[in-house]
Amino acid sequence: MGTSKSRGSVRIGVDVGSSLTKLAFRGGSGAVRYELLGRGAYDQVVETVQKLQPQVLGLTGGGAAQLASRLDGRAVQVNEFTAWGTGANHLLSRRQKTDTYLLVSLGTGTSVMLVDHQDVRRLGGTALGGGTILGLGAALLQQSSFADTCALAAQGSRDSVDLLVRDIYSDPDRPLQGDLTAASFGRMARQDNSPPREDMAAAIMRLVGENVTLIAGGHARHLGLDRLVFGGSTLRNNPALQAVLTEVSSLLGLKAYFLTNGEFAGALGALASAPETEVTP
Question: What H or E segment, with its residue span, contains residue 222?
Fold first, then answer.
């Protein structure tokens, strides 16, 4: 798993999620590299720590306590939302940089956080997220691969699955924009034939992306903020979901930004937030 480095010169941050384990490494040169592992990759992380003997070892995420117990007190646990805010601040490009913004973390579920300089506060969230996409992909598409569901969605259109406002109001003087969603998956009960799998996948992304943005956008409007910053492993190689988030943000009068390497924000924040530790074999 990691490459050999000077012992003690490496800093490691680990975000132990319910679906994936994300690692950030910073060497003596200051360069950062990332590694993505599957769920419950405790043995691999412990092996890497023993090999590299990091100067800093920060853990965050739902599985941080369990991993820490395997490391005999050699790691520092960092609050998940603090880690995410700190990591996002590091990942924001110069063009995206701002002191105060809403950070939307799309993991298994979704959290919405207010980042105000170095202060990070969770405002709310939703159970909709990557876990929803994975579960509905398995239930509706017999598709167990998250990546394959994302690829299908990129080729489909939700119009044959969702009921739109124009399907209810045929009058051009309808009270709402015609291509807005009236009911997610609402067409399914009105047609005899099942829609293409690609369209079903696209509708899953629309269900998640639209509702996540509406929830985050409500917080933004309440606080007088004009931008949403998105990150998280659910966005990895998922252009269909990114397109939905961008479109709905625009409809709400908000700007959508996407963190490069945003799935590693928590790991990077854990690395940056943890104090130096003495890690011994």
Answer: helix 197-223
For position 127, which CATH number holds?
3.30.420.40
Say whether both 129 and 248 belong to one domain: yes
pLDDT, one tens digit per residue, over 6-47 is: 445 899 999 999 889 999 999 988 899 999 998 889 999 999
Please write the tens of the pLDDT for every residue from 156-215: 999 999 999 988 887 777 777 878 999 999 999 888 888 999 999 999 999 999 999 999
Residues 131 and 239 in one domain: yes
Which residues have CB under 8 Å from 29's CB, separation 6+? Answer: none
Residues with a known catalytic role: 80
Structural domain of 186: 110-116+119-258
> 54-112: per-residue pLDDT in tens?
988 999 999 999 999 999 878 999 999 999 999 999 999 777 777 899 999 999 999 99
Contact present, 264 and 87 (Cβ < 8 Å) = yes
Q: Output the CA torsion 137→131→180→104 (10° steps).
A: -150
- Strand partners for 227: 255
Task: Please check whether residue 185 is in contact with residue 172, taking contact to mean a CB–CB distance below 8 angstroms.
Answer: no
| Percent helix, strand and coil across the chain, each to the nearest 5 | 40, 20, 35
User: What 8-state DSSP symbol labels residue 19?
Assistant: S
Listed residue (54, 50, 68, 67) closest to 277, CA to CA = 54
**What's the Cα-to-Cα distance from 274 to each of 97, 227, 229, 248, rounded to whole Å?**
23, 29, 24, 36
The 10s digit of each residue's pLDDT in 110-134 is 999 999 988 999 999 999 999 999 9
pLDDT in tens, 143-159: 999 999 999 999 999 99
Contact 234, 264 (CB under 8 A): no
